[in-house]
Amino acid sequence: MSKSFERYQKRKLISSYFSVVLSIALVLFLLGALGLLVINTKKLADHFKEQVAITVFLKDTAKEVEINQLQKSLAMAEYTKSATYVSKDEAAESHSQEIGENFLEFLGYNPLQNSIDVHLNAGYVATDSIQKIADYLAKKEYVADIAYDKPLITLLNENVKRMSFWILIASGVFTIIAVLLINSSIRLSVYSKRFIIKTMQMVGATKRFIRRPFIWNSIKLGMVGALVAMIAMGGVLYYVNVKMPQLSLFSEPITLIGLFLGIFVIGIIITWISTYIATQRFLNLRTDDLYY
Q1: Is the domain defined by 53-148 classed in CATH 3.30.70.3040?
Q2: Which residue among 18, 108, 143, 152 is least crowded, i.e. fewest CB within 10 A of its CB?
Q3: Between the CA atoms of 266, 268, 274 and 275, what dihedral angle is there, to the nearest 10 degrees?
């Protein structure tokens, strides 16, 4: 009978530890995922910004040497991500594929112009910066026109600012929720041992002596939960990097290491503080209050 009761108690203890570790790991994983999102918000925003292109249309009278010089100068400019020359024949073929029919057969000639598609570095994708670049290029005699989607650029920058603001707000709110959830799990774990705490106190054990094993045990659970969360974060990070390699998620290893260490430290600190507060509460309660 006693062995059966001991096995029951052991299973109950393991189940309790498992639920605490799982709740800590889940909360820290979500917190870490949000941290990854915050870190990579700029990368994601830059990725979308660099898809915006300025199209430099060239006059038919433009010489090949002028076109080559312009393309090279644009490619070497500090504001340029890439500069690609598109001939009028290539543009016609691309346009025909988009509309599903050969419009040259109806017109009898190619009305399109040779052009250079310039993708800018993210820092220069702003209305003022692009306008300055466009004005500079428009002064060249062999440039016919400069085209870019001004409303799209304005909307993109506004959405990036709005997204960054709300991500910061969400980060703050979720951090508070994470602390409360972990604190709740730790309190429930300590609550189940409230009579042991009071018994130790009644036989003369000091508060510090009583708190020490509870705090150390909770710290170990926090460390295990943090490790589980870090492994899950690593798996998600690897998966996203495979699916979207253009984001270069592993290009800043020091930042990622800092985030993972931060999650590990947060797991330890929150469990330590939560256990300290929970044990202190039960140490200060009267014996009769333990039943409520």
Answers
A1: yes
A2: 108
A3: 180
